[in-house]
Amino acid sequence: MNAQGALRLCLAGTAAAEVGRAQAAAADWLQAQGCAAAVVARAELLIEEVALNILRHGFAATRDAAAEVTVSLQGGRCVLEFADRGVAFDPTRAALPARGDPAREGGFGVPLIRALAQEARYARTPDGRNLLRLVVAEGVLRP
Amino acid sequence: MEVMVIGTGADALRLGLKGRLDAAGAEAVEAAFTAQVAGAPGDVLVDIAGVPFAGSLGIRMLISAGRVATRRGRRMILVAPQPPVAEVFSVVALDDLIPVVADEAAALALLAA
User: Fold this and answer.
1) With A100 labelled, which of A31, B47, B90, B97 sits at a CA distance of 20 to 30 A?
2) How confident is the model at residue B73 (pLDDT cuts 50, 70, 90)?
3) Which of residues 116-135 of A touch B (CB under 8 A)?
4) SS3 of A81, please?
5) CATH 3.30.565.10 fits A3-136, yes or no
6) Shortest Cα distance from B5 to chain A (angstroms)?
7) Largest CA distance in chain B
């Protein structure tokens, strides 16, 4: 672990603008650290997919919706960590929608997360938190 | 995020999307975009060269608009995605559902085929 500082963001509520604010802050920070444009774009997309899913589907009452996102560079790799107290959800194991399935209109989040993250690790803590750690893929994506 | 009518030629309606198609952008533009596609007199070309980012809500918006066009017996084609956007489209296999082409000439060739 070669942490080079981190950016910590707290999101509350279900507004899309809240996620947009986090994406913009993360993009600015990663650009300032000299990350490649593709890595910044993938990190932004992962933040949108994961954070929006947590805020909109993780909580029974929207007023309770909250998530914490930490962006860091570890050993030169971009790492995104998400923590929330919503219902247990493991995107690393959730079922993938079938290719070409017309019903998959809403089901893009999970395939995007799996394709754009080079490593994904999920844990549910005994005190009821979801922890998701994603390493953003560099270089050309495999299909 | 905005929707523009670029041209209403005899061959197709040309729309342009400009701005980030993130969650907030998709919410802001969805009603106007879908209304334009629904009201098109024929096929629709959507120029997305001005879109630097597309997330899954944005992709969902494009798919539902594409379906609106199909239900009316028309085709909707996405034209000129920037590389990061093309990458996302390819990850979700969007072109199984909506044709995506590099430029207007390719779109017109597809309509003529």
Assistant:
1) B47
2) very high
3) 116
4) strand
5) yes
6) 26
7) 37
